[in-house]
Structures are given as C-alpha cells and as structure tokens.
Amino acid sequence: MLKQHLQELRQHATPLYVYNLELLRQTLKAAKQEANKYNFHVHYALKANANQPILDEMRQHGFGADCVSGNEVRAAIENGFAPQDVVFAGVGKSDDEINYALDQDIFCFNCESSHELEVLNELAEKKGRTARIALRINPNVNAKTHKYITTGLEENKFGINAWELDSVLLLLNKLPNIRLIGIHFHIGSQITDLTVFRNLCTRVNEFQEWFEAHKIQLEHVNVGGGLGVDYYNPEQQPIPDFSAYFSLFNQFLELRPGQQVHFELGRALVAQCGTLVSKVLYIKKGVTTNFAILDAGMTELIRPALYQSYHKIENITSEKEDVRYDVVGPICESSDCFGKAVMLPETNRGDLIAIHTAGAYGEVMASGYNLRNKVKALYL
Ligand SMILES: *Cc1c(COP(=O)(O)O)cnc(C)c1O
Questions:
Q1: Is any atom of ligand 1 closer than 6 Å to the C-beta of 184?
Q2: 101-113 burial, b for 16+ CB within 10 Å, e for fewer?
Q3: How far is CA 147 from CA 186, 191, 218, 317, in A?
C-alpha cells in the first residue's frame, strides 16, 4: 500500500505515522457486521489511539467509547460520542475525573475496588446524582499473553476478586447513590488463542449464577476487549477474525432474558491501519550485524522496548539483495531497538522504513524523552 504513495511520503518529514483510513473503515464494517448478528454492543477503547480522524470513524460506524481516564471521557464527548455510549474503567480514577464523568452522566462506571465504590457514592451524593456502575471482576483467567498486558489474574491490580464479592454486596446496600447495572471483565490484550475467551465465558457464567443466587439481576455483561492481531503477517491478515470472536461469545455465554452484552475493543480495530514511517540516518558496522539507525525511536513507538513485541519491518525504497540488520532508534537506551537480525534489502541513508501494525498503542504512547519533537500523522 505505502509503496504506491512514495512520492507523497517523500514530501513529509519523518518520523511519521501513516494511517490507512480505507483499511480502518473495512475493519470497522467487518467488526460491526459480526457484532450486529448477535445484537452485541461494541465500545472502542480510546487508549489504543485517540486521534480525531480515528475517533470520527469510530463514531460514524456506531461504536461506543471505552475510556480509562477523565481526559479520554472528555475526548469521547467532545468528539461527539453520546454520554450514554461512554463507559469508564480504571483502578485509579481521581475525584476530578469522577466528578467530570458524573456531570456528563455517562452510561457506566466500571468500578475496580470497594474503596472506589465508597468514594464514587460520596461524590455522586454531593451532586444529588445516582451513578450507574458495573463491578469489574477479576476472573482469574490466564490471557496467555505478555505479562505486562495480562490483567485478569488475581495477582494483577485490576478488578475485584471473587472472594471480595460478598462484602462488596453488603457495602452496595449502604450506598444509595450507586446503582449496580452489570458486571465487567477485561483479562488482557493481544490475545490470539480464542480458547482464552472461552475460559472467560465459563467464568462469566459462574459469576452470573452467583449473582442470581444472591437475587441480583444484571442488565449488562461487559466482557472487555483483548482480541489480538497478526503482527507477523499484516498484509495477509489485515482484518482480525471478528466472526470467530463474536460467535464464540454467542455460543458460550449463558445470558438471562433481556441482558445486553458489551465489548471493548481497541487493538483489533486500529492496529493494522497504522504504520510508522521512518528515514534511515546511518548505517554502522557491528560485530555480528550492521545497525540501521533510524530517525524514529522508542519515543515514537515504545512497544518493542516495553513488551519485547514484534513489528514487521520493511524497507519500502530499496530493491537490492537482502542483508541482515539490527534496526535501532536514536534514543540513548539500549532497549531502543525495533528488531534484531532483520533481513532487509541493502539499506542506505535516506531509505524509508515502514514499521507495520503500529496503529494501536503507538502514537498515543509517544513521549518527549530526549526532548524529541512530537511525531506527526498523515491520513491516506
Ligand atoms: C485497554 C483496555 C481495553 C482494550 O484492550 P485491547 O486489547 O486493545 O482490545 C478494553 N477494556 C479496558 C478496561 C482496557 O483497559
């Protein structure tokens, strides 16, 4: 795709995030179509990428917003998402963030501890409001993904553990400014083994029985996000298998009459539509390989440094014979490396390098470390 736009790319300063909006639209249509089959509601997790053109597409395609900070709630609302389509999770919501979300009367707070419930009740009471909440439950399901993006194990800080639920119910009876409308789960990210989601369904069904036994009706079940993408073959698999994903939940979730099911997808919707384009600054001889030194670094895309994650790297301007390179950035950290022993056509100063599948948790995590300039974006 990018090779057709070389002339245009050459006119832009690098590093540059390039977004393929056509692929984004195809992805959103596919996700929506599969979710609609079962009347599932899908919220887009803004933390994956909150650029305005991306948010516009999400809203236009009928996605709700899943937020994990007050500013994400604000970004959703200022970009036209209806408050009744906004959910707000996070283990550390500040008073200001809660107050703002209360004022906006968002659909649901996904609450992660008893202490948070007490504070939310107090803040809602001061405003004479009732907050709708879902309990984020930690189901102790292994997401079989990188440990930094595993969130559903008891050792993780997220959610309320099963053994705390009795006391949470007692507490809720004493909190008149909170109304329990559902349960929420989110067990991790970049989950490619669908049996993990099947295990999640089994746990959700067990919790549903528990609530039923306690005579509590839940209107909403939110199973979070986490569906992974193919970082190794972005061209062959640009759109995740939403059909398999949603049909699995349809098959294995045991729902009560009238219950609504919610999802919160981030990565699966936006990862493949974004590419980080960078220029080669220098080639340097190493002991075992050569280094290709780029003008992009971990300040623009931190995933390899933070999670040892793989991104497919391509030289889009050279057609020569393959040579092996360590592809690195300019930042003063040894972890500032996009790939080791990568086979690329012989690479020279000025060549353009595409780092694929960078649309999620890429630009949004960019930092100013080393006083770097803010990375720019181009929409094709
Ligand atoms: C990050 C996050 C998501 C989205 O995760 P993806 O792996 O990008 O789909 C959904 N829900 C919550 C609560 C999150 O924190």
A1: no
A2: bbebebbbbbbbb
A3: 14, 12, 31, 36
CATH of 21-271, one of 3.40.1190.20, 3.40.50.720, 3.40.190.10, 3.20.20.10: 3.20.20.10
Handedness of CA 6, 365, 311, 64 (dihedral sign): negative
> Cβ–Cβ contacts within 10 Å for residue 216, how many?
13
| Ligand 1 touching residue 93 (CB < 6 A) | no
Contacts of 276 (CB under 8 A, 6+ apart): 15, 16, 17, 18, 296, 300, 301, 354, 355, 358, 362
Q: Which amino acid is at 171?
A: L
CATH superfamily of 2-15+272-379: Lyase, Ornithine Decarboxylase; Chain A, domain 1 (2.40.37.10)
C-beta 267 within 6 A of ligand 1: yes
Q: Domain segments of the chain: what residues? A: 2-15+272-379, 21-271
Reading phi first (left if > 0) and then psi (alpha if -120 to 50, else beta), residue 43 is in: beta
- Provide the residue type at 62 as one letter: G
* Locus of tokens 């669908």: 194
Residues contacting 205, CB < 8 A, separation 6+? 252, 253, 254
Q: What is the mean pLDDT of the chain?
A: 96
Length of the chain: 380
Indicate if the pLDDT at residue 1 is higher than 90: no
pLDDT digits (tens, 9 = 90+) for 218-236: 999 999 999 999 999 999 9
CA of 330 to the centre of ligand 1 (A): 30
Partners of residue 186 on adjacent β-strands: none
Residue that the structure tokens 């707070």 belong to: 109
Query: Tell me: the pLDDT tens digits for 285-324?
Result: 988 889 999 999 999 999 999 999 999 999 999 999 999 9
Q: What is the pTM of this model?
A: 0.97
- Best substitution site from 189, 192, 357 to test ligand 1's pocket, by max atoms within 8 Å of Cβ? 189
